[in-house]
From TrEMBL:
Entry annotated with the keyword Oxidoreductase: yes
Entry protein name: Nitroreductase
Segments forming domain Nitroreductase: 8-176
Domain of life: Bacteria
GO biological process: cellular response to oxidative stress
Organism of provenance: Enterococcus moraviensis ATCC BAA-383
Keyword Protease on entry: no
Primary location: cytoplasm
Subcellular location: Cytoplasm
Keywords: Cytoplasm, Oxidoreductase
GO MF annotations, alphabetized: oxidoreductase activity
Length: 198
């Protein structure tokens, strides 16, 4: 089995996170920046943007998310939601993934023939980048799970951290020390996923 496949297998959703990482914030930032730089984008447009939240800023995000979700969640379901958000806050930090929509719009104007495709390609670039960063963190034994509380938290996040108006929030990657391993992963039958022709 190649090292690449092993790395993919190691990337799992880790929900039991702690704040006990041996890596410094600087080391984590350097790793993430390198991975983002090397992740592909259409026309080398480099639309991905990342905001690092550590310490109080990280905890603030999940407190803000709780406030945003409380009026939207049935009262009987809210304790479970609250517990989930508190498990995120227990981690070391959160990476906020954005796409710069000004670049997307400029590409649409420059290459009208592909105008409808650029938002799609932007989403694909974001997903590739998120997966690459997540896998890179897993290689360093940093646990993570990917969340999507956008667009519910978009306005609050933009206001709290003065996010440029052209940046569109796409995902939140929570990370920290692995306090409990992920469960067994189930795979659907190959016959349902793959076709082959000769």
């Amino acid at each position: 089995m190649t090292e690449f496949i092993q790395a993919l297998k190691k990337r799992r959703s880790i929900y039991s996170l702690g704040d006990n990482l041996p890596q410094s914030q600087e080391e984590i930032k350097a790793l993430v920046k390198e991975v983002v730089r090397e992740s592909p984008t259409s026309f080398n447009s480099q639309t991905q943007r990342v905001v690092f939240l550590f310490g109080d800023a990280h905890k603030k995000l999940w407190s803000m998310t709780e406030e945003a979700l409380k009026p939207l969640t049935p009262a009987e379901a809210f304790p479970n939601t609250q517990a989930k958000l508190q498990s995120f806050a227990a981690g070391t930090g959160t990476l906020l993934f954005f796409e710069d929509m000004d670049i997307v719009k400029n590409l649409q104007e420059q290459f009208a023939l592909y105008a409808d495709n650029f938002p799609v390609w932007s989403e694909q670039a974001s997903g590739l980048t998120q997966a690459n960063v997540w896998t890179a963190l897993a290689q360093e034994n940093i646990g993570a799970n990917l969340q999507h509380y956008n667009p519910v938290i978009d306005e609050a996040v933009a206001k709290e951290w003065s996010i440029p108006s052209s940046w569109k929030l796409r995902a939140q990657l929570v990370f920290g020390s692995i306090e409990a391993e992920a469960g067994e992963k189930e795979y659907m039958e190959d016959s349902a996923r793959f076709l082959e022709f000769n």
